[in-house]
Structures are given as structure tokens and as C-alpha cells.
Design goal:
The complex is a heterodimer of chains A (378) and B (360). By secondary structure, chain A is mainly α. Chain A is 72% helix and 0% strand. Classes of the chains: A mainly alpha (378), B alpha/beta (360). The interface between A and B is medium-sized, with 27 and 21 residues.
């Protein structure tokens, strides 16, 4: 096995950074639309569901410690079925990446760069994300390590500043004739945490230890906690009626922060800089995953990977340009939602269960370190 | 490096038209018509022709006036104080008539070489005539446009809103800035309504809460905040005088500071003045069978500020509050801060009760 390029702790930053993507701008509105003042409960329950499915993904990754997701699929499904499953996953990841960048650019157009052509913004984002992927996993890990603390600090700093305007009474009545809506919204809420699937791509490259699983869980808990807290604060500040009509509630939340003196008047511009970092992190992580899908699907040798990286550019630009209705993009197109549902709630749990049962016997040649990992079947 | 050298969104500072204030009047009639007729500028008929715009549907129902500072490339010393659209003035007030604020905003671009820029907007003044019909429609554009700040202050004018923008202030250069700064004095003067931000107003409207907005009254060179305008839903339904404003702020836990004068308990006809530095109010509704009462607890801290040994005009103690409870009920909403009650219960029990009292 190659020397791991990422340490255990980076599992946390990678999973968190991959999950906190463009969704952070729209999560409070989407959840309030479906479950009103109890939106935060839906997110919390969706987060718990994500922990369960994330654990299943982790179990699958642990069974194949020297393979990433595309390789696992080929290994389990064989050349034909494995490639078929991989094709679905590859299309999903590519569409998710392309549309995420499209949403990012649309938001950027609204509050920062209104005259810059969409094409240019998309091209620049794709170029820098692609460049980070060219530089390799160590670079990706370090970029995420630098940006992640800043983004988390910004999120919590904004929430802290907005607290004086929060009125807890806007959260009431809690679960008053609303339990059905809350339950219905759990799966849509869990879909906001798509980034947990990245464990299947990055576990292969991390230094495995007993604490790996805990770092992974921490990586899920950070975005779950952030989204729940952000939704709570947004509802407490704006109430549900206003939250439901705001396109990007967190940005409006930043604008709503008031000080008795003229201080931090343009806080949203400051926060936007870090939000760009959040999206960049997620874009890079998904870009790398997409690269792995494509190289494994087409059996591209490592020395030609660079061509696969830059081959993404026209594909991502086309995806971004093809979808002209930004609202459809923001709400997630039905095809993407269905595919996501099939992969996260169907394919990964099935494969995890199958391999967990199949690998009952200790496999020869695997070190004690691997055998000691949580969920490694011995 | 090549890419970093350029910017699509670059606009030179002198090419921006910084909108400092917006006044919204009902149309017809055209605001400031008499003033224009008296001036020696363009004949009013020609001016009105320019201010009109062709609408896609419906008839023009609003007149929007914007105030922009005149930033000269070669500044000349200002003669005397003040501003106006007159020659040598510091600001330019342009009026546009239409029925959509977005359309009026874009139509204004046909009258200026500058690119209108709202990020520094200070105030929106709405005439009482417009406010009586509802301010939701008026504020919609200002809420949606990403350039707008949620901290833009909203004022109501008795009569023409444009007249407030036309004021030539003695100290400040621009009437918009002059007006926008006034609510910051609410910490010393309790008769000024300071909860007047666009964001707060929109929140109150969306949450179906009643509220008050400050009333701006203008002379040629001065603006005064004279009490408040009471809103139910998004419609102006009545006026609140300065003393009533003080009571509303005190009872609704919005009191930042002010002065209360009381009769001296020690000497008849003497007046004692208290400079209130802190006031905290807690309202607890009590349901007892069909009877609803509200327990209002107000903690006031302040400094003994003045003693005047002459006849007091009126007794402003507990009677002052009792007298103004009715005013409070006008605009009170049971989901106000400090109220610990299930909102559903408020909806079912309290609101019908209040509706009988509110602006009866």
C-alpha cells in the first residue's frame, strides 16, 4: 500500500468542507418552506440519518482500505455491473459539481459581481479547482486545512453577531400540528449533507487509526451543527414568513446585523470572501472525486490523469450553461435528487451490508492496524 | 496574473450616482409643483413631461424622488449652508412618476449620466397618503434589490415626502444624512422612534405585528421628528403624539433613555427631573376565566438631573402610564418581546380581544 497522503484528522476537515458547500446559502429557506418553525428539528433529524448512512459508507470504505469508491464498485460489481454503477455515480458527481459551481456563480452575481459574465466566473472557479486537483492530494488537504478553520470561524462569528436580534419566541410553537411536515423533511434535510460520501474517495489515502472513525463522525457533526444553528438563528431573527421568501437567508442575516455605532457596515462582503472559500473547498473535493470516477471508468493510466482533469472543464461549463433556470438549480433538479437518493439510501447501504457479510473471514496479508479499525470485520 | 489585472464590475467613483434618500409620494398630484412654479428653472409643464414615464400596464400612481450628492470634479466653495437643486447646491433631487419602483429607477437612468448606486442609501420617506394604502408594495423593491441595506431608515411624512428631501440643513450637507442621524439621539430623547430600519419594518409586516414609524416634519431648513405613525398590517391607521410615543416605547421595552418630570414629593409645585438611563419592561398576560389582564413590570434606573421650584404642569407618574395604556394597546401585539406565551394561544385568545381595542 502507498504511504498515506492525509492524516486521520484531515478526515474531519475534508468531510466537513465537502458537506458545507453551496447549500449553506439556501438550507434555512428550503427547510423553512417545508417544515416551518420546526425546520431546525428536521435538519437535526436529517443529520442523525446522515450519521447512520455515513457510518454505512465508512463500513464500506473500511472493508476496502486500499481502494477508493470507483475501485470498490468495480471490485464488487465486476467489469460490467461495476462500471454501470460507476457510470451512475460518475454522472451524479459531475452534475453535482457543475450545478454547485453554477449556483455559486449565481449568488456571486447577485451580491458581489453583477456585471461579470457567468461564463467567466464559472471558468475561473473551474480553473482554480482543477489546478488544485492537478497539484494532488497533499495540496488539496493543505488548502482545506487552511480555509476550513476560517470558514467555520466566519459562520459562528456571524451567528454570534446576529444573536442580539434573535427572538426565541419565533421558534414557537414547537411541533404544534407540524410533526408530519417535520418527518417528511428529514430526507430532504439529509440530502444537504451529500459530502459524507466523500469518505469513500478519501479513506484510501488517510492514515488509518482507531480514531479515524471518530474524526469522520466529527466531520459529519460539524456541518450538522452549523446548519442547525444557522437555521435556528435565521428563524429567530426573521421569523418563518420572511425566511421563506429570502433567496439567500444567511446573506440577509449578515446584512441584518446591527451595531449601535458604524461598525462592520459591509460585513457581508467580508463573509462572502470566506463563503467563496467554503465553495472552493467543496468544489475541489468533488472535482477530485469526479476525476477518480472518470479515470477508473475509462482505465486511464496515472500519467494521463492531467488530461482527464482538464477534460472536466468543457463538461462543467456545459452543465453550468445548460441549466438556465437558476431556481431549478437551487431547488435541485428531480433527476439529481432521484440519483442521489438511489446512491445514498440504496447503493451504499446495500454494498456495505453485502461486503460486511461477505468478508467474514480475516483476509490474509492485512496488517493489525487495519484489522483494529472500527467496523473492520474480524 | 493576467486575469487578476481586470475587473468587469469596475466603475469609477465619480461615475456613480450615490442615492442618499428616496421620497415616495402619491401621484397625482406631482410633488413640489408649487415650488417649481415659483422657481426660475424649467417651466413646470416641461419638467413634468420629463418626469412622466410610459408604463407597460396601468396608470402611474407613485412619484419617486431620489436625492444624489453633486460630486464635482472641480469643487467650488459652497455659498452659505445648505443644499438644494438650485444652482451651486450640493444635491440633486430628481422626481420620476410611475407605478413600479424598479421601472422608475431604470427610467431615471435616462436622465442622468451616472450609474445609480443605492448601497449608501440613508432614508426612505413615505408620504402619509401612500402609507395609508399600504407600504408593502412600496418596500418590496427596496427589500429585494441586493444593493439596498437593511439598515436604511424609514420615515413617514405628513404631507409631501419630497418636501423633507428638499430641506436645506444648517449643519449637515444633505437632508437625507441629517434625517438618518436623528434616531441615534433616541438614547437621550425617548420621543424619537428608533426602530425604523427597513429590515425591522419588513420583519414586522411579515410577522403581522403592529408597529410605529417616526414622523418627519419639515420646514425650509429644519426637520423635526414629531411623534409616530401607527401601522396595523402595512397600513397607516393613525398618529401618535410625542408623549404617547414615549409611553409606547416604555411599555414595549424599547426605551433607551430620556427624561421624566414628576411633581416633587417634598415640596408642592416643585418639579423633579429624572434622566432615565435604563428601562426594562416585562409583560405577562394573565388569563383568568374569560378575563384577560396584563401584568406590566417596568424597572427604571436613572439619575436625579434637575430640580425646578415652580408649579408642575402635570403629574407624570403612575397616572402617566395609566393614561397611555390605551395608546399602548393600539399598537401592542402579544407576540412582542418580553411576552412569554404560546403564540397559538395568542392567535386564538388574545388577538380577537385586541381587535376590539385596536384603533377602535
Amino acid at each position: 500500500m502507498n504511504k498515506p497522503k492525509l492524516n486521520s484528522m484531515q478526515m474531519m476537515t475534508l468531510i466537513s468542507a465537502g458537506t458545507l458547500g453551496v447549500d449553506i446559502l439556501t438550507v434555512p429557506r428550503r427547510m423553512v418552506e417545508s417544515s416551518g418553525q420546526d425546520a431546525w428539528i428536521s435538519i437535526l433529524l436529517g443529520g442523525l440519518l446522515t450519521l447512520i448512512f455515513g457510518t454505512l459508507a465508512y463500513i464500506l470504505a473500511v472493508q476496502y482500505p486500499d481502494k477508493d469508491f470507483p475501485e470498490i464498485l468495480i471490485s464488487i460489481g465486476g467489469k460490467f455491473f461495476g462500471r454501470l454503477m460507476l457510470l451512475i455515480v460518475a454522472i451524479y458527481v459531475l452534475l453535482y459539481l457543475g450545478l454547485s459551481i453554477k449556483i455559486f456563480v449565481q449568488a456571486l452575481l447577485v451580491f458581489l459581481l453583477d456585471k461579470t459574465p457567468v461564463f467567466i466566473l464559472m471558468l475561473l472557479m473551474n480553473l482554480v479547482a482543477g489546478y488544485a486537483v492537478v497539484k494532488g492530494l497533499e495540496t488539496i488537504g493543505r488548502v482545506v486545512d487552511i480555509l476550513f478553520p476560517l470558514t467555520i470561524f466566519t459562520i459562528f462569528f456571524v451567528m454570534l453577531l446576529a444573536l442580539p436580534q434573535a427572538d426565541p419566541i419565533r421558534l414557537k410553537p414547537i411541533l404544534y400540528n407540524n410533526d408530519k411536515n417535520v418527518l417528511k423533511s428529514i430526507i430532504p434535510a439529509a440530502q444537504r449533507f451529500t459530502g459524507v460520501g466523500l469518505i469513500l474517495y478519501y479513506f484510501k489515502h488517510t492514515n488509518k487509526s482507531k480514531s479515524s472513525f471518530l474524526w469522520f463522525l466529527a466531520g459529519i457533526c460539524i456541518p450538522v451543527f452549523s446548519y442547525t444553528a444557522l437555521t435556528l438563528i435565521t428563524i429567530m431573527v426573521f421569523g418563518i414568513k420572511e425566511t421563506a421568501i429570502l433567496t439567500y437567508p444567511p446573506l440577509t442575516l449578515i446584512k441584518a446585523i446591527r451595531f449601535p455605532i458604524s461598525f462592520l457596515e459591509r460585513l457581508e462582503s467580508f463573509a462572502a470572501v470566506f463563503w467563496i472559500g467554503i465553495v472552493f473547498n467543496a468544489a475541489v473535493l468533488f472535482y477530485y472525486s469526479s476525476l477518480r470516477n472518470i479515470t477508473v471508468f475509462f482505465s486511464i493510466p496515472e500519467k494521463y490523469e492531467i488530461y482527464a482533469i482538464w477534460a472536466h472543464l468543457p463538461l462543467l461549463m456545459m452543465i453550468g450553461q445548460a441549466e438556465s433556470n437558476v431556481w431549478e438549480v437551487l431547488d435541485g433538479t428531480p433527476i439529481i435528487r432521484t440519483v442521489q437518493f438511489l446512491i445514498v439510501l440504496g447503493m451504499i447501504p446495500l454494498l456495505a451490508g453485502y461486503t460486511f457479510l461477505k468478508n467474514r473471514r480475516r483476509r490474509p496479508g492485512e496488517s493489525k492496524k487495519i484489522r483494529d479499525l472500527p467496523f473492520y470485520y474480524t | 496574473m493576467l486575469l487578476l489585472a481586470g475587473c468587469w464590475d469596475h466603475i469609477d467613483i465619480e461615475q456613480r450616482g450615490y442615492v442618499l434618500g428616496v421620497a415616495i409620494d402619491a401621484y397625482p398630484p406631482m410633488p413640489g409643483k408649487d415650488e417649481k412654479a415659483a422657481s426660475e428653472e424649467t417651466p413646470p409643464e416641461e419638467e413634468e413631461k420629463i418626469e412622466m414615464m410610459e408604463t407597460h400596464t396601468g396608470k402611474p400612481s407613485y412619484a419617486m424622488t431620489i436625492q444624489m450628492p453633486i460630486l464635482r470634479k472641480n469643487p467650488q466653495p459652497a455659498e452659505g449652508g445648505g443644499s438644494s437643486s438650485e444652482g451651486g447646491g450640493l444635491t440633486w433631487e430628481i422626481t420620476q412618476v410611475g407605478n413600479s419602483f424598479m421601472a422608475m429607477n431604470r427610467e431615471l437612468l435616462a436622465r442622468t449620466s451616472l450609474s445609480l448606486y443605492y448601497e449608501h442609501l440613508q432614508v426612505i420617506i413615505i408620504s402619509d397618503q401612500v402609507a395609508r394604502k399600504g407600504i408593502s408594495d412600496v418596500l418590496d423593491f427596496f427589500t429585494r434589490d441586493p444593493e439596498m441595506r437593511r439598515r436604511v431608515r424609514i420615515f413617514i411624512s405628513k404631507g409631501e415626502a419630497k418636501a423633507v428631501l428638499d430641506v436645506k440643513p444648517r449643519i449637515e450637507e444633505y437632508s437625507s444624512v441629517y434625517l438618518a442621524e436623528m434616531p441615534t439621539n433616541a438614547g437621550k430623547n425617548s420621543r424619537i422612534v428608533h426602530h425604523t430600519d427597513l429590515g425591522q419594518v419588513i420583519q414586522l409586516i411579515h410577522n403581522d405585528l403592529s408597529f410605529v414609524l417616526p414622523v418627519a416634519q419639515a420646514t425650509k431648513d429644519e426637520i423635526k421628528i414629531t411623534g409616530a405613525a401607527a401601522f396595523k398590517g402595512d397600513k397607516l391607521v393613525g398618529w401618535v403624539n410625542e408623549l404617547e410615543t414615549e409611553a409606547i416605547k416604555l411599555i414595549r421595552n424599547l426605551y433607551l433613555g430620556g427624561v421624566v418630570s414628576v411633581k416633587s414629593p417634598e415640596q408642592k409645585d416643585a418639579l423633579e427631573v429624572l434622566d432615565i438611563t435604563k428601562a426594562k419592561t416585562k409583560i405577562t398576560p394573565i388569563i383568568n376565566n374569560d378575563q384577560i389582564t396584563m401584568d406590566i413590570k417596568i424597572d427604571i434606573k436613572g439619575n436625579y438631573a434637575e430640580y425646578i421650584n415652580k408649579a408642575a404642569l402635570e403629574d407624570i407618574t403612575i397616572d402617566f402610564l395609566k393614561e397611555n395604556i390605551r395608546i399602548f394597546l393600539k399598537s401592542a401585539d402579544l407576540t412582542a418581546p418580553g411576552l412569554k406565551l404560546h403564540p397559538a394561544a395568542c392567535q386564538l385568545v388574545f388577538l380577537p380581544f385586541l381587535n376590539r381595542l385596536v384603533f377602535a
